[in-house]
């Protein structure tokens, strides 16, 4: 199965990004394909590489980067939502790229399932 | 069709809205703060039990544990799943509607 | 066009597939950005020639309320955009009867012509979709 | 004491929680999505009218206008204020509790 | 100490004023960060020798639920911190009776000893405060 | 009257920062003092100078900077919440400073009214 994922909230404030991450990890472990995670609304804040959580907490941004690099997942940050919120290439974590909303629609077309995580 | 609900039934009307739209044969998966709806001994439990006559209910175990909700006190008939089980449900039931 | 679609060359990449896309709008406008940013996705989806429908239920019905004036809150009034959807061949707009009635609204209160459906009819429509995007 | 409510009464139970805690003589100011509670012709209006026997109600005009809510259809007795009026209310009623 | 308090020299800057501070906790833990970050403010407030009380109502009562295990969600389990509050001389913890009962909980289900108050009693306490911080 | 303000949500996603801004502006116009606006939780994202909203939309970050400079308002971003979310000096807009939670408690002590804006 081929999954597309939409994340609508930023890291920490809501659990959405956490749940999406664990869902993606579980899907990969079961041998499914996750071709793209699209970050929209405050979800774009998941790509801010300056994020530095406390030592005893999970690092949400790095976790996404690592997963993407290990499994070739396309992490796409919506350009319009990102501009609004001040997410630009200069602070973009590895493995993320900024692109248009068409990438989300395309994901819906190409994936067998599109699953939305938000607030 | 798989419906997910991630809000506490005591705080928002999201679960009600979901139940109004879950057709017989579809499934509801309670995640995040939505897991409180899976517990016995609340006024919500009656609504869930009524809905269970036509719709299958699942609840995400990791979210129950995080919140200190005892698996033994989950409404009888609601199945506890892990993240892998969540993935399986999206495959089994088809299109997913997230009630946010 | 390739700019708005994020560089996706539609015919090539999507191979002429037509799926049923439903956008579920359940939140009031202005208190949160979901309504506005959902509309931005809807507009882009028009470029992909998919079978698109919009559903407004719960507080989402407020998005279509006539007479929005945002000068005093200094926010962007995006309600005219709903009227522009027809020009993009997006004309399947459904509003839930129960949600409208509970809020004391009628179709006359809305900025666009919509089809008013019961919760049951909305549920059936939802069950027929390939992709449901909820905001 | 001044209570503010910024959530739609149709989506969350925030207004109910506020009304359970607003003592006679205190005031409730409806802002943001909370302004929908100020409108006539809904099941919420009855609850608000009942509460108005002991508590003063205000609603933020700019938020009504943004949402296309007609000032003429605001429940009789609820006073419409602007941001300056909001400031005045915090001074008049003392400590502010924001029901978020 | 000046680090945790943001460089504020307490005696100097606050002139020995003691105000009644109430923290109103109304949200469940983990689904959102409010509970955790509210607790961080509470801990800092201890350094300022103010008259601090914490109220748990609505879904806020879930913050105190015993038996939280966050390994599977990979989040920080902050529930033990509530037990540490006493060491900071923060011992006015109030839980609303109605909120507990509606959720089928009793004081035995909670990680700390609390005073259970009715909604009416909570309301009166709230009305006596100088500052109410709600999360 | 002396006001302290707490903003708990980021720009655009929720109206909280907008309402807080209009409240502060109205208080100043009435001759009151607003000694500090404290940004907590996702509220720290209001200080990201990279934010670039569309031309026809308000610029929330710049609006706060301008108000602070014109009226000498202390805009304080919580350091712990900011680190978590990747807000650091290198992307901090003019007029904002990063400091500890003590600044919020102090604001509650010093102000006649502390008003909270959030979600």
Largest sheet of chain A: 5 strands, parallel
Distance between the termini of chain A: 26 Å
Oligomer: heterohexamer
CATH evolutionary superfamily of chain B: DsrEFH-like
Helix tally of chain B?
A: 4
Helical fraction of chain A equals: 25-40%
Give the low-confidence spans of chain A: none
CATH class division of chain A: Alpha Beta
Biggest sheet architecture of chain B: 5 strands, parallel
Strand proportion of chain B, as a percent range, falls in 15-25%
Q: Report the portion of residues of chain A in β strands.
A: 15-25%
Widest beta sheet: strand line-up of chain B: 4-3-2-1-5
Overall structural class of chain B, as computed from helix and strand content, comes to alpha/beta
Strand arrangement within the widest β-sheet of chain A reads 4-3-2-1-5
* CATH H-level superfamily title of chain A: DsrEFH-like
Q: What value does the Rg of chain A take, in angstroms?
A: 13 Å
Outline of the structure:
Chain A has 119 residues and is of the alpha/beta class.
Structure description:
- The complex is a heterohexamer, with two copies of chain A (119 residues), two copies of chain B (100 residues) and two copies of chain C (135 residues).
- Helices cover 35% and strands 23% of the residues of chain A.
- Chain A is α/β, with parallel strands linked by helices and 119 residues long.
- Chain A has one domain (2-117): Hypothetical Protein Ychn, Chain: A, CATH 3.40.1260.
- In chain A, helix 1 (16-29) runs parallel beside helix 2.
- Chain B has helices at residues 14-21, 43-51, 61-66, 83-93; strands spanning 2-5, 27-30, 56-60, 79-81, 96-99.
- Chain B has 100 residues and is of the alpha/beta class.
- In chain C, 27% of the residues lie in helices and 17% in strands.
- Chain C has a five-stranded parallel β-sheet with strand order 4-3-2-1-5.
- In chain C, helix 3 (80-84) links the parallel strand 2 and strand 3 (93-96).
- The longest helix of chain C has 12 residues, at 34-45.
- The chains are: A alpha/beta (119), B alpha/beta (100), C alpha/beta (135).
- The interface between D and F is medium-sized, with 18 and 21 residues.
